[in-house]
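Researcher: I'd like a structural prediction for the single chain below. Treat it as a standalone chain; there are no partners to consider.
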Amino acid sequence: MEAHNHRVERGRGRSTRSAWNMTLNALTVIMAAAGIIYAFLPFAHPLPLPAPPFTIRPYDPQRDQAAQCLICLIPGWQGPTHPGDYQWSLTASANEGALLSMNWCANNRATLRDNLDHMRFELLINGYSVEANKLAEAEATGGQGVCRSYTGVLTGWAPGRHSYVWVQHVHRRLSDGWGIYEPGEYLMEFDVYVR
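Model: Treating it as a single chain, here is the predicted structure.
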């Protein structure tokens, strides 16, 4: 009797294993079919963004003397000292190149380099990300400290409303030698009305 029971249990084990294998095979077929269907869905392959309706090139102080500094159009502009979203509105001329810049200053070169090692800059124009090779990188010493800047000249903005967003991603608490900056995103959005 014991042997018979054992055989029955073994038989059940095979039957359960077979059912499990059939279930796995069915799931594999379903997942493969879903993968094929997914490959043909419109959202499966993102469409490339159209070319931006503007051009940006690295700033050249000799060639770009007439470019209009956008941040300079904001009376008393100072960068934020705490993470958060900040917004300014300004008006610019369509006939002149727009000078866009991002920078960070510190009381000495060692502090500047340490700060820059713990942050990342991001520039967006009308939602388009601008790559670093489109900007001129410069370091200048003056007054009380030293600054690193990333500057470009934008042309081709049609009349109307545009957006220039500069984000500083600060990864840890920083001191520039004058003040303390907490970690977080310092998002500066400039709404530019081009006339």
